[in-house]
Amino acid sequence: MVLKSKTTATILSFLLGGLGAHHFYLENKKRGLLYLAFFWTLIPAVVGFVEFILLVTQSEDDFNLKYNPGEFCEKYRKPHSMPVSRRGKTATTSELNLEEQLLQVH
């Protein structure tokens, strides 16, 4: 999977937004074809400029979450940690439940 760049998408939306180039880049092919089919009406140019402003104001994390979801999750995944019992060794779920029950009783 190729990572999408927010900078590249922003530049494409500014320069070629009326032709839908940024949508082709972001793999929104249907929307890109729609922009290409109606570019002569100048409506896609106006919408492309609005999308340029939205891309400029969008945070890098929001962009990655929307267009690079797999890589975004890998980058920010927290390491899995094993639960530790009060005795300092790795505990099973049943041991942790038993300890919680004992603590609630006392």
Automatic annotation (TrEMBL):
It holds the Pfam family TM2. InterPro entries: TM2 (IPR007829). Keywords: Membrane, Transmembrane, Transmembrane helix. Residues 4-53 form the TM2 domain. It is a multi-pass membrane protein. It comes from Rufibacter tibetensis. The keyword Transmembrane helix applies. The chain crosses the membrane at residues 7-26, 32-56. Coiled coil: none annotated. One of its GO terms (cellular component) is membrane. It is found in: Membrane. Its main location: membrane. This is TM2 domain-containing protein.
